[in-house]
Every structure is written in C-alpha cells, then in structure tokens.
Amino acid sequence: MTEPTDRLSLYRRFRPQRFGEVVGQDLVVATLRRAVAGGKLGHAYLLSGQRGVGKTSVARILARAVNCQAPEAGEPCNRCESCQRIVAGRSLDVVEIDGASNRGVDQIRRLREEAAYVPAGSRYKVYIIDEVHMLTGEAFNALLKTLEEPPPHVLFIFATTEPHKVPATVVSRCQAFEFQPIADDAIAQVLHKVAEAERIDLAPGAAELIARRSRGALRDALVVLDQLGQAGEVTEEAVVDLLGLPPLSQVDGFLDALAGRDADRALAIVAELSTRGRDLALFLEETATRARDRIIAGEPGLIPIARSVIELRGELSRAFSRRLHVEMAIVALCGPPQRGEPRPAPTREASLPPSAAASSSPPPPLGGGTPEAPEAKPAAPLTEAWRAMLESMLTERTAVAAFLSPAEVTWADGLLTIRLPPDCGYHYESLLDPAVRSYVEATAHKFFNPLLAVQLAWAGGNHRPTLEEGARILAEALEGRILREGDDGSR
What we know:
Blueprint: H1 10-13, H2 26-38, E1 44-48, H3 55-67, H4 81-88, E2 94-98, H5 105-115, E3 125-130, H6 137-148, E4 154-160, H7 168-171, E5 175-178, H8 184-198, H9 204-213, H10 218-229, H11 236-243, H12 248-259, H13 263-275, H14 280-296, H15 303-315, H16 322-334, H17 348-351, H18 354-359, H19 382-396, H20 398-404, E6 408-412, E7 415-420, H21 425-431, H22 434-447, E8 453-458, H23 467-477
Parallel strand pairs: 1-4, 1-5, 2-3, 3-4, 7-8
Antiparallel strand pairs: 6-7
C-alpha cells in the first residue's frame, strides 16, 4: 500500500515520472528514450553521478518504460496496469536492491537464481541495484557470471556515486551514463515551481541561495525548501540561518580584501564569522565558488586567490584551530594588518622635527655606567618598524607573526607594549611561552631602537605582571640583575 501523497516529502512528491520531467540530464534521458522507442536496449546500464541528481528516478522511469503496455515515443504512459503496479511497488518483475545492505555473495546468488525465471507478467525482469559499488568482491564475481551470459528477459540497472569502485570487468559489460550536477539556475526554477504548487512564499534570492548550497543536487534543494516552507515565508535570512551560509556581500568583501592585500578587513570578517559561530570551512567553500564565478565573469586576477582559498580549505581538516589557521593564511597572503599599528605615545624624539630627531644624541646608558654608548640609528616610525618586524617573522615563524598581527602596539621611553584584543586569548597564552617570548624580544630589538623591554598584555582579562615578571622587566630596563636570597651579588 502506498503512502498518502500529502504525507510525502517534497522530493518524493515531485519526483519525475517521465523522461521529459528529468532536470539537467538531457543527453542521458534522450539516449535512453531513443533506445526504448527503437527497441535497442542493452542488458545492463551503469548510472553514475553525485547524490541527488536523478539516477534512481531515471532507473525507475526506464523500468516502467521497457514494460509499458502503451509507450509514448519511449516514454512510459504511467496509466497502464504495468506502469501502475510498478509505481505502487507491487510489481514482482521490478526489484530494487540496496547495495549497501545487500552486499554479500549470498544475496547476489539468490538474484541469479531468480533471474533465470521468466517475468510474472511483464516484458522484462528489471533489477535496480543502488550504490552498487558497495558489493563485495565475491558478490561482483557472482554477478559477473550473469552479465556475461544474460537471459534475454533480464535488465540490470546499476546506480553509484563512486563508479571508480566498480570493477572494470563489470563496467565493460554495461552501457555507462554519467549524470552531471544540475545547474543552479535550473534548480532555482524547479524550486519556484514547487513553491507555487505548494503555496510556499519563496523569495527569489532565497531560491538562488538554496540552489547554490545544494551543489547540483536537486533532491537536497527540495529537502531544504520542505524544511523551511513548514515555518512560513522562505526568505534569504531564513536560508542563511538554517544553512549557515554567508551573505554574498560578505563573501565578495572577503575576496576584495584578499585581492587588495587588506589584512585588516579580511581578519575582521573572520573574527565576525567566528563570533557568530559560523563554519569557516563552509565560508571558504562559498568563497572559492564565488571566486570561480567572478573569474568566469572576467576577473582573472582572482585565479591565484581562488587557488589559495581552495588549498586553505583542504588544510582545515588537519588544523587544531580553524580560526588561527585561516588568520595565519591571511597574514601570509596580505602581510601584517595596519590596525595593530597605533600612533606612538609622545616622546621627545617624536615631538622633534625629522631633522632634529635625526641629529639628537642617544640617551646615556641607564644604571650609572659611563662607557660611551654605540651610535644608534634614528628611531623609525612605529608603524614602519612594527610592519617590518612582522614581515620578518612571516618568513621565520609564521605562527608567531599570526599571533601578533591583531595586536595594538605602543612604544614609549624604550618600552614596547604589545596588547592583544579581548578575542585573542589563545594568541596571548601562546606568546607567553618562554621560547616564543624570547624570540619576540630578540626580534623586536632588531627593529626598535632604543628598546629596553617588551611587555605583553591582553585586553580580555585583568592580567597583571607577576612580581617576578615585574622585577625582570625593571632589571632589564636598568641593565641590572635580580638578587635572590643568599646571593651576595658577586659574579
């Protein structure tokens, strides 16, 4: 007994019933239709392609067409007794087998025995084996015997999403048809037709979003429409919330930021996505897809960026922190951001004209020493020194450069203060590692002159330097050392 139509999901209710109703597979259905109309059928067909593109639907249409009592130019009439029995699932001559759950040799041996008998009331016995690549090697060997010497009344239709897993000996005995992903505009048209028939208020932009996210699978698109349509109007916002899709404007903004080497804007978009709990992998997939569309539309300059995004998406599955991995890639591609390069605090040198600052003598050494200090180069502007430091780190230790890139920096009286924003707690903890901190300090001394000490801070907590840390900073500034209890100060 068939299930009432009003209880069926949309993808089952609107499943194509004739070759002419199949969307996006024109060459396949035209070839099969001509074969049925001309009586030139093969004994086995292999239908391959991604999920949701119509392989099983075409197999069922073909099963009805070859047994139809009143075919119409290769199409099943869907009205005769044979078609009605097959549609209702009551035909003994059309057998559907799930290759994933019936993959053993015993099931295939039973199939061979049944295939030897003539049809109960149809022209052909049709065996539809879905996900045929799941059969075991022994099962394929048992099936091969029947494919080599097929009874004239038997028709095999195999469907698979992974044709490369089907043995070549089996493929060579089938007529193979590869189903293509369905175009987004074709899926959107179907969605509008279904929405109109079901009285679902579907916004045009929402249909395009669903089609784009379905990746060529019409069935997946109908499932999403079914789910959203039960809650009322289907808007773009509803699709974004359900699927976690980024708005097109955000994707374009990210691409433009990468193309313009604007690390600030790109990092801000990643920060926003992370704050909202969005999937960065999905965002990169959408970015790569959008880049392809823009390249085809005439923006060849995006080709290297698209390649980088695709490569980055492939790396995320191995990343321990997806956000950190993406941020590192952005900094490597665009260079250090400028938002972390604030204006320096007023100093004597900064307040002097460039000529005066260049001619001013370096301050005498602290700590009471009298030796003459080596001649120091004029202090470079903070923004230039900070950027040069991060660019140097990019080639040596990219991760450290990524940790530092969001920071705000001040440099006054020989103290370089690096302050991480509230959402960069992990960055801050990583920089506190003794080896990492030593590397940062050593590198900073190459680009900031004079530099007495480097202080790390985090705006996300009330972190205060420990007594030992404060003493160390003071000792470095005074060119002294810390005496511990029992130490007489001798070296």
